[in-house]
Specification:
Elements (H helix, E strand, L loop, with lengths): L2 E6 L7 H14 L3 E5 L2 H7 L2 E3 L27 H14 L3 E6 L1 H14 L3 E5 L15 H21 L2 E7 L6 H9 L4 E3 L7 H13 L5 E6 L7 H12 L4 E6 L11 H19 L5 E6 L2 E6 H6 L6 H10 L2
Parallel strand pairs: 1-2, 1-4, 4-5, 5-10, 6-8, 6-9, 7-8
Antiparallel strand pairs: 2-3, 10-11
Bound molecules: adenosine-5'-diphosphate and 1,6-di-O-phosphono-beta-D-fructofuranose.
Adenosine-5'-diphosphate binds next to helix 4.
InterPro entries: ATP_PFK, ATP_PFK_prok-type, PFKA_ATP_prok, Phosphofructokinase_CS, Phosphofructokinase_dom, PKF_sf
Catalytic activity: beta-D-fructose 6-phosphate + ATP = beta-D-fructose 1,6-bisphosphate + ADP + H(+)
GO biological process, one term: canonical glycolysis
Length: about 325
């Protein structure tokens, strides 16, 4: 392979730049030309390619976001869009791809390979940590530390004003961010999509805590929880608590997706970036590079996309035990 392309797609995540840097420098080390594809699949369709040299990725390892920009591409969902993308890659002489993103990005890459035979190796980049085949995805560690910092600060007000706070964190359909923040932030309860926590259970936990002389409480809610969004949950709980507690709601939102990546995310991204280029040049395709028990793994896209990576039930239990 003489020329490869690298792109970021789906939501951005802290550490994506460190992965881009690792991909570019490994390609150059292996004497392969590397181009950046701007704005994910949209840029592939439009032929937005930029040549990348070693200095193109200087001074980015510490930066959040992605220098290649990211997008959710509607056009790539269509055959016509993918055909345009293939033609652009052919015109530019790009023979293989490194895709940094989540399961949607890998689904696109898999379909693209089946239709046009362009080999892709994936790097898991999403704050949600919801991909099977890797213990951690790039961005997760930074996101939970950012959310934790915010939760610690909210706790000050919860304590000063004897309040009950419902704090919503990101994660789409997954509760990884919520469970980590719940444990590390000392929450009374964590509500995640993977396990049903009823309003009744929330009411009971809060009441029991306050009976045992707690004067403030924090409930961490994953955005995809089945009881509704954080405002709906807080309203349902408030109705049951009949004005007993002073309730506030806080949605942390996109602050969780930004900022300088932690050391853990930079190291993970660097390892995955190197391994991804090595795999692509060794003739692999339709795989995601992961890290399991600190060892690099090659996971078929099929598994990364469709297999579940369940939250350990003991973590949910841990929050209950430790909030007594
Ligand atoms: N079934 C599919 N066919 C073609 N492209 C897809 C498919 N699913 C997702 N994609 C592409 O991948 C992009 C990123 O997926 P998305 O789910 O938004 O983020 P993530 O990669 O983080 O899961 C989508 O915007 C779309 O362009
Ligand atoms: O910024 P957007 O496009 O509204 O997306 C929000 C979603 O992106 C995430 O931050 C990351 O998800 P992806 O990695 O799938 O893009 C989710 O936690 C959240 O639900």
């Amino acid at each position: 392979m003489k020329k490869i392309g690298v792109f970021t797609s789906g939501g951005d995540a802290p550490g994506m730049n460190a992965a881009i840097r690792a991909v570019v420098r490994t390609a150059i080390y292996k004497e392969v030309e590397v181009v950046g594809i701007l704005r994910g699949y949209n840029g592939m369709i439009a032929g937005n390619f930029i040549p990348l040299q070693s200095h193109s990725v200087s001074n980015i390892i510490q930066r959040g976001g992605t220098i290649l920009k990211s997008a959710r591409s509607k056009e790539f969902m269509t055959y016509e869009g993918r055909k345009k993308a293939f033609e652009q890659l052919q015109k530019a002489g790009i023979e293989g791809l490194i895709a940094i993103g989540g399961d949607g990005t890998f689904t696109g890459a898999k379909v693209f390979y089946e239709e046009f035979g362009i080999p892709t190796v994936g790097i898991p980049g999403t704050i949600d940590n919801d991909l099977y085949g890797t213990d951690y995805t790039i961005g997760y560690d930074t996101a939970i530390n950012t959310a934790l910092d915010a939760i610690d600060k909210i706790r000050d007000t919860a304590d000063s004003h004897d309040r009950l706070f419902f704090i919503e964190v990101m994660g789409r359909d997954s509760g990884y961010i919520a469970i980590a923040c719940g444990i590390a932030g000392g929450a009374e309860l964590v509500m995640v999509p993977e396990t049903l926590t009823t309003i009744e259970e929330v009411v009971q936990t809060i009441n029991q805590g306050w009976k045992r002389s707690k004067t403030s409480s924090i409930v961490v809610v994953a955005e995809g929880d089945e009881e509704g969004n954080v405002h709906e949950i807080a309203a349902k709980v408030a109705a049951r608590l009949e004005g007993k507690y002073d309730i506030r709601v806080s949605t942390l939102g996109h602050i969780q997706r930004g900022g300088s990546p932690t050391a853990r995310d930079r190291i993970l991204a660097s390892r995955l970036g190197v391994a991804a280029v090595e795999a692509l040049l060794a003739g692999k395709q339709n795989i995601m590079i992961g890290v399991v028990n600190d060892e690099i793994t090659h996971v078929p896209f099929e598994d990364a996309i469709y297999k579940e990576k369940p939250i350990r039930q003991e973590f949910i239990e841990l929050v209950r035990i430790l909030s007594i």
